[in-house]
Design a protein that fits this description.
Elements (H helix, E strand, L loop, with lengths): L1 H21 L4 H97 L2 H20 L6 E6 L5 E7 L6 E6 L4 H6 L6 H26 L9 E4 L3 H10 L1 H9 L2 E4 L1 H89 L1
Parallel strand pairs: 3-4, 4-5
Antiparallel strand pairs: 1-2, 2-3
Helix pairs in contact: 1-2, 3-8
Length: about 350
């Protein structure tokens, strides 16, 4: 606005100079121009004063608005900072809780690792592995057949003097089945150790196969006894990994076991096998009882036929007796009438004599 006023003032001065240069000015014109100049100067002064006052008022009003906006922004910022601080505090608390849980889980993992290492150290001993397999076998048998040792027996002594881990007294045609626990572990671990060289692992594989076949031969020669057991036995492997290794990659071992009539079972497959045997035993017992019931029904049918025959005879005798009773009743009635008639004649005779 100030630049506009200055521009107008400059234009007026230029016009005055032009008039002066033309030389046709007169006193009135000069006087008028002087008045115009004075008025313009006053107007410019008044305008400056009003403009300055208005500008000051606008600036103060703007300053108030800005200050109010700043206060509102400050309040909002403080509110958001407090909310964010509260959320951050909650997040930090949750992080601390999760870190404590992670710490506890890590401690449990460390203890579990220690237990696994101790278990591995325990299983390195053959005798301990044997006890481990026997305990698992006992648990599976009790889970399927119960604690009453009617169908099975543990640490059973055979007729040849040898003791088998468990024996199953199944009815025919299954017969008595021996179950022995074996746990070939050392060469299996070397065979599956990726840190060993291929040649070392190949040697361990051959030794592992040899160990398993020796166990199969031992079970077939010791626990399959003609006349005492069936012509088959079960080799129990308490480790699922060893069983899976044999079934997946060593078909020759399975064929060798089939030829020797020795069935290799893991905990899972043994549980399934024993459950099937239990079902077969129950079905056989059910069939046996059904046969007994059928025989008893046949005997009952014969007795009922005999009963019917005797009842028919009794019925005929009853009919005959009933007929005789009726005939006797008729005769008795006739005799009674005769006696009544005789009694009537005697009374008439007595009355006639009295009249005379």
């Amino acid at each position: 606005m100030e630049y506009l006023i200055i521009g107008l003032l400059v234009i007026v001065i230029i016009i005055l100079l032009v008039i002066l240069l033309r030389g046709n000015k007169n006193d009135d014109m000069i006087e008028r121009l002087g008045k115009y100049e004075t008025n313009i100067t006053k107007e410019i002064g008044n305008f400056k004063v009003d403009f300055s006052n208005n500008l000051r008022d606008d600036f103060e009003h703007l300053n108030d608005k800005v200050e109010k906006k700043l206060l509102e922004i400050n309040d909002r910022v403080n509110e958001r900072i407090e909310n964010n601080f509260e959320k951050t505090n909650k997040t930090f608390t949750n992080i601390l809780e999760r870190l404590s849980k992670i710490d506890e889980a890590q401690k449990k993992i460390d203890s579990l690792s220690t237990e696994i290492v101790s278990l591995q150290s325990v299983l390195t001993d053959k005798k301990t592995r044997g006890i481990f397999g026997e305990v698992n076998l006992n648990y599976i048998l009790t889970s399927v057949f119960g604690e009453k040792k009617v169908i099975y027996d543990l640490q059973h002594k055979m007729s040849n003097g040898l003791i088998v881990d468990a024996i199953l007294f199944a009815p025919k045609p299954l017969g008595t089945i021996a179950i022995d626990s074996k746990f070939p572990l050392e060469n299996y671990q070397r065979m599956t150790d990726r840190e060993l060289s291929n040649s070392e692992r190949e040697v361990a594989t051959k030794l592992f196969k040899s160990d398993v076949k020796k166990h199969i031969d031992a079970i077939a020669s010791k626990y399959i006894i003609p006349g005492e057991t069936s012509d088959e036995a079960i080799m129990f492997l308490p480790a699922e990994a060893v069983f899976a290794e044999i079934n997946a990659y060593h078909e020759d071992i399975l064929e060798y076991a089939y030829k020797r009539r020795v069935w290799i079972c893991s905990p899972t497959t043994l549980m399934s096998t024993l459950s099937i045997i239990q079902m077969i035993i129950k079905n056989m017992e059910r069939d046996k009882y059904a046969q007994v019931i059928h025989e008893e029904l046949n005997k009952l049918s014969l007795e009922f036929a005999r009963y019917k025959e005797r009842w028919d005879k009794l019925s005929k005798n009853i009919d005959s007796v009933s007929k005789d009773v009726k005939e006797i009743y008729t005769t008795t009635d006739k005799i009674t009438k005769r006696f009544e008639a005789i009694n009537g004649v005697d009374s008439k005779l007595i009355t006639h004599e009295d009249d005379k």
